[in-house]
Each structure stands twice: as C-alpha cells, then as structure tokens.
Specification:
The chain has 159 residues and is α+β, with helices and mostly antiparallel strands. It is 18% helix and 46% strand.
C-alpha cells in the first residue's frame, strides 16, 4: 500500500511537470530595434513577476499578479535587476536585496545560468527564454539541498 501511495505521488508530480512545461505558449520572440536577448534584458533592466507556475520540493504552487497566489513567496513585490556587466540583484520588496551574476549558456542566448547569493548560494538555470521589450518568459530549474524546483515564469518590465 505504501509503495502504491509513493508511486501515485510520483506519477502526479510527473503529470504536473508535463502540464507545466507544455503550458508554455509557442510565442514569437519579437524584438524591436533588432536587439539581441542580452541587450533587451539589460535595456529593460528591471523586471517584475507576472506569473509563476512551480513545483517546489514536491509541492505545486501558482502565482498570477492581482489574482492567485499559493506560493508563500511575495512575488508581487519581487524584482530582478540586470546590468550589462553580467551582474544584478533580486529584491523582495521588504528591503532585502540579493546580488547575483549571470552568464549566457548558448550563442542564441535562450539559456542562462545565474548564481544568487542569499544566506546560501543558489545556482539557477533559465531555459527556453523568450524575450522582447514587453515580456520575458522562461523555464527555471533550481537543484539545491534546500530547494528543488521546476517553474514556468513570466516577467514584465517594471515601470
């Protein structure tokens, strides 16, 4: 019976992960002024969270600005700030600020590695990056002893 419960839990997590990844829309990556992904990322500079669908440590959660939030993270106040030199910071709206560095992992600049320095250092991978001056979306992977997560995230410029 215990084996059946464990298998059902793992199967439901797998199904949720498939739904999460397949819910990523096929969007055209429209770039104004013929800017590259890295130029758009740093030109907009500060990005706020609009939507996050996640599985964190085996628990599904969902955030959408001005609507639902089951994440226990203050996404409505969180922002990423990117600088041209490959540095930046993440803020949570409570005056906490965590510095990070980022590097592109491929020539097309659709994969990014970020090292975020909080009380513990996290390595974050962004893949399937679609970006224009109005929206940034990606799939995020974090594999850390305190946090194992898979997320689909959408950000928009902070004004």
């Amino acid at each position: 019976m215990i084996v059946s419960i464990i298998m059902n839990k793992n199967l439901s997590l797998l199904v949720y992960a498939i739904i999460l990844i397949s819910s990523c829309k096929n969007e055209v990556n429209i770039q104004s002024e013929n800017l590259t992904n890295d130029q758009i990322l740093t030109k907009v500079k500060t990005w706020k969270f609009e939507k996050a669908r996640s599985i964190v440590n085996g628990t599904a959660s969902y955030y959408e600005r001005n609507e639902n939030d089951t994440t226990m993270i203050p996404f409505s106040q969180c922002k990423f700030n990117f600088n041209e030199d490959g540095t930046g910071f993440l803020t949570n709206g409570e005056e906490a600020e965590w510095p990070f560095t980022f590097t592109w992992l491929n020539i097309e600049k659709t994969k990014l590695k970020m090292i975020i320095k909080q009380k513990l250092t996290f390595t974050v991978l962004w893949e399937n990056i679609l970006i224009n001056e109005k929206k940034l979306s990606y799939v995020e992977f974090i594999d850390h002893p305190e946090r194992l997560s898979l997320s689909y995230i959408e950000l928009t410029p902070y004004k």
